[in-house]
Amino acid sequence: REALAAEIWDKHPLQNRWALWFFKNDKSKTWQANLRLVTKFSTAEDFWALYSHIQLASKLTSGCDYSLFKDGIEPMWEDNRNKRGGRWLITLAKQQRHTELDRFWLETLLCLIGETFGPYSEDICGAVINIRAKGDKIAIWTREAENRDGVTHIGRVYKERLGLSHKVVIGYQAHADTATKSGSLTKNKFVV
Amino acid sequence: GTRIIYDRKFLMECRNSP
After folding, report:
1. Predicted ipTM of the assembly
2. Min distance A55 CA to chain B CA atoms (Å)
3. Using a CB-CB distance cutoff of 8 angstroms, which residues of chain B are in contact with residue A7?
4. Nearest C-alpha of chain A: how many angstroms from B5?
């Protein structure tokens, strides 16, 4: 009992419990069947135990995703807490997989679990990394695309945390626009 | 209520603690 108490009290609780999901593209299965919950955690120490146990994103095969979402939110547009929202999207050039991808993803995870966005952290749903041959993508998902103040604050802080230059522009896209797009490009609702 | 906020430095230190 003392050991259990020590284990609990020595760890640093996070504001939220988070769920890590893994997606592996198997064309013989449905999209949902390819999505698996890996585990949930709610302390800083348990986050690191998980992070050091799983593959770096850059080592995953094309077609795989990791998603980190607040407990209770599924990593898909259809979830009630996502469907009115959108994402700040970071698109990477192919060569950045070897130079920046893992650093950007870890920074994204730390922004989420550390509640970096202050009161606007309430607006955060999660983050997704897509490993793709044509170029990897990282995105932070927020719950309400119409919440201009929250969305733009999150975008500015996120860009700064990634260390992106002022010359780089990142865009926020509403999921509703992504879901109904006709071409390959979704219009940006906001940019920073 | 209060929000538990951890900066980058603190979280990185948690990584290295035994």
Report:
1. 0.94
2. 17
3. none
4. 5
With CA atoms as reference, the chain B residue closest to A51 would be B15
Chain B (1-18) residues lying within 8 Å, Cβ to Cβ, of chain A = 3-8, 10-12, 14-15, 17
* Cβ distance of B11 and A14 shorter than 8 Å: no
Find out whether A54 and A39 touch, Cβ atoms under 8 Å: no
Tokens for A38, please give them. Answer: 């890996």
Q: Tens-of-pLDDT digits for all 192 residues of chain A?
A: 777 766 666 899 999 999 999 999 999 999 999 999 999 999 999 999 999 999 999 999 999 999 999 999 999 999 999 999 999 999 999 999 999 999 999 999 999 999 999 999 999 999 999 999 999 999 999 999 999 999 999 999 999 999 999 999 999 999 999 888 777 778 999 999
d(CA A167, CA A115): 26
Please list every residue in chain B whose beta carbon sits closer than 8 Å to the beta carbon of residue A107: 8
What are B11's two structure tokens?
């979280």
- Comparing CA positions, the residue from B16, A120, A102, A11 lying closest to residue A112 is A120
